[in-house]
Design a protein that fits this description.
Number of helices: 10
Helix content: 40-55%
Radius of gyration: 17 Å
Bound molecules: fe (ii) ion
Number of strands: 10
Structural class: alpha/beta
Number of domains: 1
Length: about 240
Amino acid sequence: MIDLHCHLLPGIDDGARNISESVALARMAYDSGITHVVCTPHIHEGYFDNNIEIIESTHEIFKSALEREGIPLKSHFAAEVRINPNIVAMAQQNRLPFLGYFDNQPVLLLELPHSHIPPGTEQLIAWLKKQGILPMIAHPERNRDILSSYNKASWLRGKGVLFQLTAGAITGTFGERVQECAFKLLNDRFADIIATDAHNQKKRPPELAGAYQLVKDEYGEASAKDLCTNNPLEIARCWF
Ligand SMILES: [Fe+2]
């Protein structure tokens, strides 16, 4: 399985706090059947002021540690970019780290606030798409606007974006409402990939196997494979 959204890099966001936590998470991911990861630390102005250089150099440290510890997990880096007006300038300066490519378009993992879909979202998505950049919305099933009116998910999807669901949302870690919403999105075939959004070993672990099993039980093995392996691999193939 391939995980395109996780916070395994040490010390640059609210994921792994140091390299030993990174290594423990990487080992856990590999042991649970994840063979490839794209590490996606937050870029969130004022909270996690990361940029490509910081992420790339931290990823080098992570990769060396994987080698030293003999963990055969393949890794690349991108970012989970919080929606904000600066994304326009970042795109113009080629400073957006992409998850990979889908239909020859670079894919941007775009994070909305959990509280709502902010004004300007539609315009930013349209602008990105015009530049040939394909936004993938991180965990729409946890957005409170979508949780309170599901038609907002259809509306957002209608703008031509990809959706990333979180494994823990499918297995129920985020509660019943989020789980219900995740299954609605799956029913409507709105999900493109499932990722862990792993932050730590206990509460938000790097595991896809539980979600894979539930999707397999409900929709068949081909769907589970598409969401956890084939689609993410299609996007990130260029790195591996
Ligand atoms: Fe995340």
